[in-house]
Design brief:
By secondary structure, the protein is of the alpha/beta class. Helices cover 28% and strands 28% of the residues. A 7-stranded mixed beta sheet has the order 3-2-1-4-5-6-7, with helices on both faces. A 5-stranded antiparallel beta sheet has the order 8-9-12-11-10.
């Protein structure tokens, strides 16, 4: 099967999985990345090694028409971690599908991983679905579910999603897409989760220690935000413990070198890795 891939390194394993399944890439659609939260070096290097054309601008209908002119309709448009809604493939490609890191219809939207940890889901999943006119609403082609642990973090959940997405690409989608396409199932009612904001990332020390640390884990290397005295900082790592005290939540009660201990509702949170927030920085995250 010929395919055009639209995505970045976030779910780049789908690209590799389809190659492993014997598919032939004809074009890479990707986008500029900041090199902090988003990366595309791996998929771009792979496409260059395979001598596949690369496009950084948004997919337009004329781009799909050009692929049809060159390859007919016998190809698939595969989307995985692409921020823009893709239309115009029907009638010009045999298949159009998207890989989404949630157990649809739960968690439609830009980037549901943070909330999956925050809301303490016990199971999660990755879904491949037909590209539709609404974000993440198309019929389900395949889905893989897996367990989440009580200490789940953004990084562990991301790895689980990436591994599951590649397995779907190598297996049921890569080996049996036509059959899956014929048996695709409607999603029904679902939930849309909007892009995370700075407020979602901000630690609230009026909460208990477990809740504060869960928020730190939920954003992981994307980092949360905390107030230390008069300053705001990005928090990359924190630990904590329960202990009765008389401090006001949010009070800085101890410092040792760059380690800072802050009072929470039922104990203390120790911030061990952090960096100051520049006045010009804004926290827009996710695709």
């Amino acid at each position: 099967m010929k395919f055009a891939f639209a995505g970045i390194d976030f779910l780049g394993g789908v690209f590799e999985g389809l190659l492993e399944a014997g598919w032939t890439p004809v074009k890479l659609f990707t986008r500029p990345c900041d090199g902090i939260y988003d990366h595309n070096e791996v998929v771009v290097a792979r496409a260059r090694a395979l001598r596949v054309p690369i496009q950084l601008s948004r997919i337009r209908e004329r781009d799909i028409e050009a692929l049809q002119a060159e390859h007919g309709k016998d190809w698939a448009l595969v989307v995985a971690g692409y921020p823009w809604l893709v239309r115009g493939w029907q009638g010009r490609a045999s298949y159009g599908l998207n890989f989404h890191p949630s157990p649809l219809p739960i968690g439609r939207g830009p980037y549901p991983l943070f909330r999956a940890v925050l809301d303490r889901y016990e199971t999660w999943g990755v879904t491949a679905h037909v590209l539709a006119d609404g974000f993440d609403t198309g019929h389900i082609l395949a889905q893989e579910m897996f367990a989440l642990g009580p200490e789940e973090s953004h990084e562990t959940l991301l790895a689980k999603c990436q591994m599951a997405a590649r397995r779907l690409a190598v297996g049921p989608l890569g080996r049996d897409l036509p059959s899956r396409w014929r048996r695709a199932e409607p999603q029904g009612d679902g939930s849309y989760w909007p892009r995370a904001s700075d407020a979602d990332r901000t630690l609230d020390f009026r909460q208990d220690v477990d809740a504060v640390l869960r928020r730190v884990r939920a954003f992981g290397t994307v980092e949360t935000i905390a107030r230390l005295g008069d300053a705001r900082v990005f928090v990359a790592e924190a630990h904590g413990w329960r202990e009765r005290h008389q401090h006001s939540p949010g009070a800085v009660v101890h410092r040792h070198r760059r380690h800072v201990v802050i009072a929470a509702l039922d104990g203390y949170v120790q911030i061990t890795r952090w960096s100051p927030i520049a006045l010009t920085e804004a926290g827009q995250i996710g695709r």
